[in-house]
């Protein structure tokens, strides 16, 4: 499975994860429709109605795949309850770009090391998925990579309440996803929800997982 996933992601990647941030942003602004369904940018100008009127802020997340004896998994985190607009939500390790980050891969790996203690040298980068725009004004670039199964994770207790893994088989089954609706600032929003046990994976995280599913299914 590992070789198959590697080949599929490298063949269908949305771009080189080591491509400079300036180039990634330029491409995203030139091709605004190259976003996964459910992204605010996917609703044409709807994201502006949420108060996002200036340039979008760049961010990157790592989509970590881990090969376990029982099968491939995707690592996720649950944010602490005092993390502002994303408190308590299920997310990938990652965050906003910093001046020292030359490319999305640098942002994703730096944030992952800070949040869950993931050593960058324990990650094999495969490529990146399509961008995802959120109403808080960020354009998220997901970077996909294999993580060494022997890596021991240590969470930053200020940001991460929990680290857990979801079976890739569950992510890959379209019937496990459903749509929910919410009215925000007089705009009807539709978003993916992927239940897993007591976890409710929704919004950007669920959409990025759905995009990973579609990338590996084509």
List keywords for this structure.
218 residues; alpha+beta; Nucleoside Triphosphate Pyrophosphohydrolase; 8-stranded mixed beta sheet; 3-stranded antiparallel beta sheet; 5 helices; globular
Kindly describe this structure.
With 218 residues, the protein is α+β, with helices and mostly antiparallel strands. The protein has a single domain, classed as Nucleoside Triphosphate Pyrophosphohydrolase (Alpha-Beta Complex). Helices cover 25% and strands 33% of the residues. The chain is built from five helices and eleven strands; from the N terminus they run ααββββαββββαβββα. The chain has helices spanning 2-12, 21-30, 104-116, 168-172, 203-217, and strands at 57-68, 71-79, 90-91, 94-96, 123-128, 132-133, 138-147, 160-167, 178-184, 187-196, 199-202. The strands form two sheets. Strands 1, 2, 3, 4, 5, 6, 7 and 8 form an eight-stranded mixed beta sheet that branches. It has a three-stranded antiparallel beta sheet with strand order 9-10-11. β10 and β11 form a beta hairpin. The longest helix is centred in the last third of the chain and has 15 residues, at 203-217. The mean pLDDT is 90.
């Amino acid at each position: 499975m590992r070789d198959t996933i590697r080949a599929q992601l490298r063949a269908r990647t949305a771009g080189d994860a080591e491509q400079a941030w300036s180039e990634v942003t330029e491409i995203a602004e030139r091709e605004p429709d190259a976003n996964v369904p459910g992204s605010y940018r996917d609703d044409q100008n709807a994201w502006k109605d949420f108060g996002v009127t200036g340039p979008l802020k760049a961010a990157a997340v790592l989509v970590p795949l881990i090969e376990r004896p029982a099968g491939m998994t995707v690592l996720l985190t649950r944010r602490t309850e005092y993390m502002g607009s994303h408190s308590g939500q299920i997310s990938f390790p990652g965050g906003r770009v910093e001046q020292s980050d030359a490319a999305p891969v640098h942002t994703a790996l730096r944030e992952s090391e800070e949040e869950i203690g993931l050593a960058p040298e324990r990650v094999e980068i495969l490529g990146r998925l399509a961008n995802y725009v959120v109403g808080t004004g960020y354009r998220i670039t997901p970077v996909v990579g294999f993580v060494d199964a022997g890596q021991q994770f240590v969470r930053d207790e200020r940001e991460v309440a929990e680290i857990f893994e979801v079976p890739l088989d569950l992510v890959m089954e379209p019937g496990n996803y459903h749509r929910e609706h919410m009215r925000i600032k007089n705009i009807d929003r539709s978003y993916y929800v992927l239940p897993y046990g007591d976890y409710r994976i929704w919004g950007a995280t669920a959409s990025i997982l759905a995009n990973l599913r579609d990338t590996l299914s084509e």
